[in-house]
Amino acid sequence: ISICRDLPNIEVITFSVNGISDLEPLHQCQNLSELYLRKNNITSLDELFYLKALPRLRVLWLAENPCCGPDPHRYRMTVLRNLPSLQKLDNQAVTEEELSQALVDGEEITAPPARRSVENGWSESSASSAAEATTEPQSELLSCSLEETNKTQEELDMKSVPRDKYSSFSSQETDCSRKKRNNVLNAILLLMKELDAEGLEIIQQTVVRRLQAFQKKELQEE
């Protein structure tokens, strides 16, 4: 997620099922309008502090994070009090009545969250979230990654990835490496939106050379 510090013009981010716990890298994404963070490791609603300065944020999906807590009403009211410009939260439209009620039932977030101490560059929360990520069922990882990657491709006016094609990679591949590959693919598709014609031509040439190398290797192995 740290790459977002270098993408101030990005408009849509899909980071669901990624073990993310820190939203600080997003606070400079001033053009961000849609943010999908379902099923991560965000433990505190104080992380919303970093989203309050995003004037164009209209869609947020934060469900299935620890910060949602046992009280769905309190959670929703707190999010809406701090992000009153949202039009949709967790795939549910925001109403004027909710925004008014949020001023009463929601909690105002005025400071960033306190961070845990880090040892050897690896925080306790990061370690636990990484461990949880590897236990995600393969079918759920595939479904989530496929859905969000196809959404990104729709934004780019690209053809969606067929499910049979998406699942045709090596059956010996671990869930963790599969999730990593899918996340890399989604990140590349998002980054393509930041490129101009010259940049896209460079990407195209690189992809062609890469494919030719793979084809040559396959022929040699046969």
Automatic annotation (TrEMBL):
<comment type="function">
    <text>Plays a role in cilia formation and/or maintenance. Plays a role in the regulation of cell morphology and cytoskeletal organization. Involved in DNA damage repair.</text>
</comment>
<dbReference type="GO" id="GO:0097733">
    <property type="term" value="C:photoreceptor cell cilium"/>
</dbReference>
<feature type="region of interest" description="Disordered">
    <location>
        <begin position="108"/>
        <end position="174"/>
    </location>
</feature>
<protein>
    <recommendedName>
        <fullName>Cilia- and flagella-associated protein 410</fullName>
    </recommendedName>
</protein>
<dbReference type="Pfam" id="PF12799">
    <property type="entry name" value="LRR_4"/>
</dbReference>
<feature type="compositionally biased region" description="Basic and acidic residues">
    <location>
        <begin position="148"/>
        <end position="166"/>
    </location>
</feature>
<dbReference type="InterPro" id="IPR025875">
    <property type="entry name" value="Leu-rich_rpt_4"/>
</dbReference>
<feature type="domain" description="U2A'/phosphoprotein 32 family A C-terminal">
    <location>
        <begin position="72"/>
        <end position="90"/>
    </location>
</feature>
<dbReference type="GO" id="GO:0007010">
    <property type="term" value="P:cytoskeleton organization"/>
</dbReference>
<dbReference type="InterPro" id="IPR001611">
    <property type="entry name" value="Leu-rich_rpt"/>
</dbReference>
<comment type="subunit">
    <text>Found in a complex with CFAP410, NEK1 and SPATA7. Interacts with NEK1.</text>
</comment>
<dbReference type="GO" id="GO:0036064">
    <property type="term" value="C:ciliary basal body"/>
</dbReference>
<keyword id="KW-0677">Repeat</keyword>
<dbReference type="InterPro" id="IPR003603">
    <property type="entry name" value="U2A'_phosphoprotein32A_C"/>
</dbReference>
<feature type="compositionally biased region" description="Low complexity">
    <location>
        <begin position="123"/>
        <end position="136"/>
    </location>
</feature>
<keyword id="KW-0433">Leucine-rich repeat</keyword>
<dbReference type="InterPro" id="IPR032675">
    <property type="entry name" value="LRR_dom_sf"/>
</dbReference>
